[in-house]
């Protein structure tokens, strides 16, 4: 399954623009003439022959590698070459081969995936026979047969299906992440072909349609058959990537194959995300190039002066080319120094950065504390290049459903006839917290009960069993008034297909309490009431819509009694109650408030007995209204209004939108880490607000929660400004804009504004649309960023992305978007970091995400632990890496002044080659993979530790400048101490020690020991591996040095190892060691002193916590386990049907009452399902919204 | 993505994957840093005193004989036209110059560390590989062939510029000169003499024949096989003076060992008295403002005289001690309190 979509990554190139697709069924010859792509896909990049040349070509396009080659060319010019070729070739080869190996393994995986997908089998109609064919051999124009639970082979035109009305059901989870089934319907004409192979083989319809494109929600084309032309739209098309469900078989005509399918056309546009450190590094690299040029210029000027003053007279001893003059010499020297000083440009840095990011990504994958046992899903770092950014998040944009909540509704409480049920109390009458262990109500008396249903209050069952009429009426209503579809595969095993989980929960509750909804036809609803099968005649459905906020059904009981059952938002129902219910209303209102305070979604239920005559009259008028051509909706509404009055209140139900585990705690932790959380949800305002409260985002302690819900642009602006003025009266009208200094980029960065106290903001989708307009978006941004929590409700996927984009563009902050569904894809892709909730059926969000895990609560671990560590490690790594390379290089610079600016290296060439690759590589990688300031528990204990990352404190231009100065100092020490110590001195036997080779050895040993000790100073967390790497590297240095300076090496490779004997002759001298010791101490002690004084005088949060850890010596106290606080509120929760469309559409369409009663074969009882007559669903994708202005 | 019914995806529970490797987590606490500084400071002071005192015991006698000033003894040799110039430098010692005494010549403003100078030699020639006698490597250019295109052996700038002043030392006792024996053996590195440089094997018993078809370096008065005709072990590429010269200096001011005074009456050092040094002045340095020096020195365990290390240790040591006091004061006064919640 994954292989199908792992295809992401390559964009299919079109040879020529196809304007229209024209194909004929069962006519391969005709179709082949157009050279349409067949159904084979290719996501791999290389084959055996192209791998090496193509890959190398790609690699050399990278700046770093190109720079290596440039250096290599310079080194091959004898006049310039100041270093042997191997100093460049060895690292280059290493880098190239590592990348080569990685690309190779990636491509092999892709090849395997391609093969796997291409070799799937499908039945294809060839020459009048069904043959099993590989997917890749399927051609445009072929007719294929799909069976239940099979993947759709290509983009197909649906011809016929096993189901009545030529319907099929598909699941589009792979495509857009939505798990509910969708319906597609074939044209009646083609549907008649059935599964008659002869007819199908004779079918020769011609299809003309749009060329391949990536729009999942749209298809236009025509089918011409026997001279007749039929329009084709998206309802007839099955897209590759979908799965056939609940359908025995279907036939389809291949329209687009392989790379032309919409799935493939949609892949490969993934934007390459880069972290802010990457951007900073690019800036720094440019600066370093400049700095390199600057150093080389100084040295070449020095060379010109030297040549002019000394060189000419020194001619006796120097080999000089004819015609050499000072300026030519200076020019050549410039390039020679470019070679020598090339190590300031951190080329090997890029490789190392990739390695350590990969390492830190593995730690995320490996973390058992982010592994979800129930769904067997470990966390996954899908992008391995963004880790350190996780430590810098300032804004989190979260989806609600499926992310904060489980999208599971549970029937939790109800109020029936003034009595509240559902609460568990102990003997003392105290409320008990419901946990896993709380005893559940036993529903075994009801054979049709849903075993998964949990309820904890035993009283309710007793009341139901005792036959209380109100309670029975309550559940009867729940069993009758809904649009749920039942499915009874085997006797007694009922499944409900509910579009909205709320409805599902309510009907399931009724089922368990003995009012089992068993089946329905357009005219009847069959229940099993307390074990007795009962059939109600369904006379009318008064459907739900956003204005009415209620739905009703009118049924006739077996006894012939006419009743209207109505459920809806409490406020709406209350307006329509009979005065006799007023007393009950008061009690129920109290209960409703209580439920709402707990964040439950409530509904009020009422009924009314109808008079037969009255109903007949009403029915007539209803018929008139429903058949009228003008203003039908409005007329129907009025008709409904007429009958839905004088209702008698039954009670109220409360459904819990279950939060995922640990959501409130996580949000609290993240808030402590000064991360602002914005919830962007498609839900209604009331629902969203409720969730905001129940997950601790909106808090009672907040000074105010602003609600922006206006209908015009001006009103929205006014409300935003008012809110802002309230929070910060002195804030000016003009946003405080920090002009970005980068030339050519007109980015406006809005600074943060100070606010006292905490505020919240709720804004609805309508207002958001206005607020996101160009002239108002900064206003929105200012106001919203002043608030602790922001909730945007009723937002479209596109708006989600716009909000993220707004913050990303105008705030100097790192954003993270987290979501689970297809509607979150756009924001996940837009944000700096996208996180997908995995382990559920939909994959779309995960596939476009950078990180994925199963539960929202893992976010705190991802950010506060992994993110923080990654950031810390990355910054430490960069700081140290720059330090060691600058120090290394600057010594050459100083030496230039003592060697006639001749581009003489200080160190042995082999040392230069191996310094970055061998001697210092592993310790710094060890540092950047294992280091942690404090362990994970302390990181949770002090979320404030997260702040330095948000403020970019560990690595910035300032930090870089400090490194530069530090390196300058160190290199001065490392050059001038050996210089002074060796000047005019000799060995203890009077022989030479101030010779070039001994000096080189001394300088390089000093350098290596000094940077190693510096590394030790930077390491907070000394694992055995760190120790091993550090000591190992030093030992390797000495071992390699002694080996390379040995007699044997010289005798074998005479000209490569001229340093023979140097190590033996100079490392046995006490003054050499005293010099090494002195330089090391002089490099390190000032750093120690500075750090110590800073810890004392200006301790950072980090220092404080580390100090605390040291004192505590043990693990931190476990976090106090807080029970979610009860909110006492007068807030009234609204009627909350699920936000999802779906069967809601069906109901709204008003067609339900007008189902034409056809005579159907009894074989297919399902046909009566309203689904059969419903408008097939369109895909909800981001493209849908993209169209609307 | 789940694999159908396969093993659980649960990550392994190891200290490594869970990032819980046992680790030592040192912090810069006052208890370590302040005493640390003090101890290092005291240690440095101790080493510094030792080094400084040692350095003071080393005797050094330096004489510039370039002949820049008109009244200096070698002035007449600086005039270009004079050939085979000899000059005499006199000095007197008021006390015994303890032996063994090392006799150095020193050059300053002389860039043996110039890159192109440094690479200008042929390692293969110098290992006695006669193949390279015929065709010296390109790096030797322009000292690889003479004007008649004969290969030069040893080729390259370093060899070509070999220092060729020679010295004789006399002690003047009652107006008569007594020659001080100078020991020129073993003044180069053991590895240079035994491994790195080797003479070509003699052809037909004649060492000089090995050099047939080659010419001497342009600046040399005599060929490599004539450097010391008295001692075959000190001839050719194994000539000690040649080896010393070939080990090029790191800095533009350097000294190189010329001879040791270890024999005869002078084994214990140079006694007090007057000395005369005869210089065969051949080596021109004035053109590039260079200087030539004569240095007599003895050594200690820490090598030649170098006050720098001792002083540096003393300075750093005292700074450490001062720093530890400063840090102690800061710590006592400003130490951040633990009670404010981090």
UniProtKB/TrEMBL annotation, chain A:
Topology with respect to the bilayer: Multi-pass membrane protein
Q: Which residues does UniProt mark as catalytic?
A: 399
Instruction: Please write the reaction equations for the catalytic activity of this protein.
Output: ATP + H2O + phospholipidSide 1 = ADP + phosphate + phospholipidSide 2
The answer to whether UniProt assigns keyword RNA-binding to this entry is no
Q: What cofactors does this protein use?
A: Mg(2+)
Q: Which residues form the P-type ATPase N-terminal domain?
A: 24-89
- EC supergroup of this enzyme: translocase
The UniProt transmembrane annotation reads: 83-101, 283-306, 326-351, 877-898, 910-930, 963-981, 1001-1021, 1028-1052, 1072-1089
A single Gene Ontology MF term assigned here is: ATP hydrolysis activity
Q: Name one GO biological process term.
A: Golgi organization
Q: Which residues bind Mg(2+)?
A: 399, 401, 820, 824
Which residue range or ranges hold the P-type ATPase C-terminal domain? 846-1099
Which stretches of sequence are listed as region Disordered?
Answer: 723-743
Q: Into which family does the record put it? A: Belongs to the cation transport ATPase (P-type) (TC 3.A.3) family. Type IV subfamily.
Which PANTHER family did the record assign?
Answer: PHOSPHOLIPID-TRANSPORTING ATPASE (PTHR24092:SF177), PROBABLE PHOSPHOLIPID-TRANSPORTING ATPASE (PTHR24092)
Its recorded name reads Phospholipid-transporting ATPase
| Native source species | Cyprinus carpio carpio
Automatic annotation (TrEMBL), chain B:
Q: Which InterPro entries match?
A: CDC50/LEM3_fam
Cellular component annotations (GO), alphabetically ordered: endoplasmic reticulum; Golgi apparatus; plasma membrane
Q: Which GO terms describe its biological process?
A: phospholipid translocation
Where does this protein reside within or beyond the cell?
Answer: Membrane
Has keyword Glycoprotein? Answer: no
The portions of this protein that span the membrane are 27-53, 311-332
Per the record, the domain of life is Eukaryota
User: Which UniProt key words apply to this protein?
Assistant: Membrane, Transmembrane, Transmembrane helix
Q: Which family does it belong to?
A: Belongs to the CDC50/LEM3 family.
Q: What is this protein called?
A: Cell cycle control protein
Q: Which organism is it from?
A: Cyprinus carpio carpio
Q: What is the lineage of its organism?
A: Eukaryota, Metazoa, Chordata, Craniata, Vertebrata
């Amino acid at each position: 399954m994954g292989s199908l979509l792992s295809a992401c990554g390559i964009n299919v190139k079109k040879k020529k623009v196809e304007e229209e697709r024209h194909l004929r069924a069962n006519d391969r010859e005709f179709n082949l003439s157009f050279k349409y792509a067949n159904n084979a896909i290719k996501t791999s990049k290389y084959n055996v022959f192209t791998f090496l040349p193509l890959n190398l070509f790609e690699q050399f396009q990278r700046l770093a590698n190109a720079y290596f080659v440039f250096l290599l060319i310079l080194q091959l010019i004898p006049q310039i070459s100041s270093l042997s070729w191997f100093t460049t070739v060895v690292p280059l080869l290493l880098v190239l081969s590592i990348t080569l190996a990685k690309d190779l393994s990636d491509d092999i995986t892709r090849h395997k995936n391609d093969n796997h997908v291409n070799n799937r089998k499908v039945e294809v109609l060839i020459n009048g026979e069904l043959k099993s064919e590989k997917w890749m051999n399927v051609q445009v124009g072929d007719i294929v047969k799909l069976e239940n639970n099979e993947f759709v082979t290509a983009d197909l035109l649906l011809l016929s299906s096993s189901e009545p009305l030529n319907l099929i059901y598909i699941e589009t989870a792979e495509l857009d992440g939505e798990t509910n089934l969708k319906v597609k319907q074939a044209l009646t004409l083609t549907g008649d072909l059935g599964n008659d192979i002869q007819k199908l083989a004779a079918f020769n319809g011609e299809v003309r349609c749009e060329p391949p494109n990536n729009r999942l929600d749209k298809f236009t084309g025509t089918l011409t058959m026997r001279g007749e032309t039929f329009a084709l739209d998206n309802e007839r098309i099955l897209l590759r990537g979908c799965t056939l469900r609940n359908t025995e078989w279907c036939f389809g005509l291949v329209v687009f194959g392989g790379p032309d399918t919409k799935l493939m056309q949609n892949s490969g546009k993934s934007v390459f995300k880069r972290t802010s450190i990457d951007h900073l590094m690019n800036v720094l690299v440019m600066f370093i190039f400049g700095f390199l040029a600057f150093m080389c210029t100084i040295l070449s000027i020095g060379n010109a002066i030297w040549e002019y003053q000394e060189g000419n007279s020194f001619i006796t001893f120097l080999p000089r080319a004819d015609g050499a003059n000072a300026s030519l010499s200076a020019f050549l020297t410039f390039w020679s120094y470019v070679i020598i000083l090339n190590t300031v440009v951190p080329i090997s840095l890029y490789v190392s950065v990739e390695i350590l990011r990969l390492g830190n990504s593995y730690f995320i994958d490996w973390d058992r504390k982010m592994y979800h046992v129930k769904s067997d899903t470990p966390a996954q770092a899908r992008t391995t290049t963004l880790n350190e950014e996780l430590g810098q998040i300032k804004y989190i944009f979260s989806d609600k459903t499926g992310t904060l909540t489980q999208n599971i509704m549970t029937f939790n409480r109800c109020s029936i006839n003034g009595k509240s049920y559902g609460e568990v109390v102990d003997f003392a009458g105290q409320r008990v917290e419901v946990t896993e262990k709380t005893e559940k109500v036993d529903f075994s008396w009801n054979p049709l009960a849903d075993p998964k249903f949990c309820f904890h209050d035993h009283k309710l069952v007793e009341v139901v069993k005792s036959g209380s009429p109100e309670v029975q009426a309550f559940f009867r209503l729940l069993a009758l008034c809904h649009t749920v579809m039942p499915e009874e595969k085997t006797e007694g095993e009922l499944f409900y297909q509910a579009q909205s989980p709320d409805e599902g929960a309510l009907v399931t509750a009724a089922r368990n309490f003995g009012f089992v909804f068993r089946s329905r036809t357009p005219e009847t609803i069959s229940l099993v009431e307390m074990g007795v099968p009962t059939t109600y005649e369904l006379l009318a459905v008064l459907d739900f819509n956003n204005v009415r906020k209620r739905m009703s059904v009118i049924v006739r009981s077996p006894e012939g009694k006419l009743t209207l059952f109505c459920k809806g938002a409490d406020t709406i129902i209350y307006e329509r109650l009979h005065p006799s219910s007023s007393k009950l209303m008061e009690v129920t209102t109290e209960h409703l408030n209580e439920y709402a305070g707990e964040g439950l979604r409530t509904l009020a239920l009422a009924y009314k007995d109808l008079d037969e005559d009255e109903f007949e009259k009403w029915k007539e008028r209803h018929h008139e209204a429903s058949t009228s051509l003008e203003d039908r909706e409005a007329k129907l509404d009025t008709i409904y209004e007429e009958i839905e009055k004088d209702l008698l209140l039954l009670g109220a139900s409360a459904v819990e939108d279950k939060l995922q585990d640990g959501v409130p705690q996580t949000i609290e932790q993240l808030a402590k880490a000064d991360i602002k959380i914005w919830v962007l949800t498609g839900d209604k305002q009331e629902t969203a607000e409720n969730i905001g409260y129940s997950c601790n985002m909106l808090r009672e302690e907040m000074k105010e929660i602003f609600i922006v819900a206006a209908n015009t642009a001006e009103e929205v602006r006014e409300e935003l400004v008012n809110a802002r003025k309230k929070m910060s009266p002195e804030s000016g009208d003009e946003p405080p804009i920090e002009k970005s200094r980068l030339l050519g980029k007109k980015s406006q960065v809005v600074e943060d504004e100070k606010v006292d106290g905490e505020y919240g903001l709720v804004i609805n989708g309508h207002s958001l649309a206005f607020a996101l307009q160009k002239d108002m978006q900064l206003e929105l941004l200012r106001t919203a960023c002043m608030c602790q929590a922001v909730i945007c409700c009723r937002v479209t996927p596109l708006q989600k992305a716009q909000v993220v984009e707004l913050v990303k563009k105008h705030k100097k902050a790192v954003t993270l978007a987290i979501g689970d569904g297809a509607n979150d894809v756009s924001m996940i892709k837009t944000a700096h970091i996208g996180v997908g909730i995995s382990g559920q059926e939909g994959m779309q969000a995960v596939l476009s995400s950078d990180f994925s895990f199963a539960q929202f609560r893992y976010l705190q671990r991802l950010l506060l632990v992994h993110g923080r560590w990654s950031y810390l490690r990355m910054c430490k790594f960069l700081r140290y890496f720059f330090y060691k390379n600058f120090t290394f290089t600057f010594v050459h610079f100083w030496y230039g002044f003592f060697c006639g600016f001749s581009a003489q290296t200080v160190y042995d060439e082999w040392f230069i080659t191996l310094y970055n690759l061998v001697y210092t590589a592993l310790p710094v990688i060890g540092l950047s993979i294992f280091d942690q300031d404090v362990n994970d528990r302390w990181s949770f204990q002090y979320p404030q530790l997260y702040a330095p990352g948000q403020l970019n404190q560990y690595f910035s231009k300032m930090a870089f400048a400090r490194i530069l100065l530090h390196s300058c100092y160190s290199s001065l020490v490392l050059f001038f101490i050996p210089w002074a110590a060796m000047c005019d001195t000799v060995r203890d036997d009077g022989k030479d020690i101030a010779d070039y080779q001994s000096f080189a050895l001394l300088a390089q040993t000093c350098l290596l020991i000094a940077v190693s000790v510096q590394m030790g100073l930077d390491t907070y967390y000394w694992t055995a591996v760190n120790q091993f790497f550090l000591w190992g590297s030093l030992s390797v240095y000495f071992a390699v040095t002694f080996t390379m300076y040995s007699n044997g090496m010289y005798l074998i490779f005479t000209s490569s190892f001229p340093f023979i004997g140097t190590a033996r002759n100079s490392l046995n001298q006490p003054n050499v060691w005293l010099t090494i010791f002195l330089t090391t101490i002089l490099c390190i002690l000032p750093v120690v002193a500075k750090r110590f004084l800073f810890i004392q005088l200006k301790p950072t949060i980090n220092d404080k916590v580390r100090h605390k850890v040291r004192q505590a010596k043990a693990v931190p106290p476990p976090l106090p386990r807080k029970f979610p606080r009860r909110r006492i509120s007068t807030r009234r929760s609204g009627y909350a049907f699920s936000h999802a469309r779906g069967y809601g559409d069906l109901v709204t369409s008003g067609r339900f009452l007008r189902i034409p009663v056809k005579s159907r074969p009894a074989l297919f009882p399902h046909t009566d399902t309203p689904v059969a007559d419903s408008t097939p669903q369109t895909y909800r994708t981001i493209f849908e919204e993209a169209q609307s202005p | 993505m789940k694999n159908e019914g396969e093993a659980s995806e649960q990550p392994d529970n190891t200290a490594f994957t869970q990032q819980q490797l046992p680790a030592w987590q040192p912090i810069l606490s006052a208890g370590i840093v302040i005493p640390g500084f003090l101890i290092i400071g005291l240690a440095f002071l101790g080493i510094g005193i030792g080094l400084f005192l040692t350095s003071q015991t080393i005797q050094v006698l330096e004489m510039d004989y370039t002949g820049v000033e008109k009244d200096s003894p070698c002035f007449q040799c600086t005039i270009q036209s004079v050939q085979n110039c000899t000059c005499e430098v006199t000095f007197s010692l008021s006390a015994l110059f303890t032996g063994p005494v090392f006799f150095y010549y020193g050059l300053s403003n002389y860039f043996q560390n110039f890159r192109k100078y440094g690479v200008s030699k042929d390692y293969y020639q110098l290992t006695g590989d006669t193949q390279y006698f015929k065709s010296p490597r390109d790096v030797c250019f322009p000292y690889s062939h003479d004007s008649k295109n004969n290969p030069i052996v040893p080729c390259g700038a370093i060899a070509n510029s070999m220092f060729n002043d020679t010295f004789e030392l006399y002690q003047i006792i009652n107006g008569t000169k007594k020659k001080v024996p100078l020991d020129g053996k073993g003044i180069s590195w053991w590895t240079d003499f035994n491994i790195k440089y080797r003479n070509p094997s003699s052809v037909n018993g004649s060492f000089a024949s090995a050099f047939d078809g080659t010419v001497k370096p342009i600046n040399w008065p005599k060929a490599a096989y004539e450097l010391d005709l008295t001692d075959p072990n000190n001839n050719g590429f194994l000539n000690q003076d040649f080896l010393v010269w070939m080990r090029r200096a790191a800095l533009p001011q350097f000294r190189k060992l010329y001879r040791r005074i270890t024999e005869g009456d002078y084994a214990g050092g140079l006694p007090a008295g007057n000395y005369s040094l005869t210089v065969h002045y051949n080596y021109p340095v004035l053109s590039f403002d260079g200087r030539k020096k004569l240095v007599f020195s003895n050594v200690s365990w820490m090598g030649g005289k170098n006050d720098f290390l001792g002083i540096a240790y003393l300075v750093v040591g005292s700074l450490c001690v001062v720093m530890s006091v400063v840090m102690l004061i800061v710590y006592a006064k400003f130490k951040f309190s633990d009670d404010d919640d981090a």
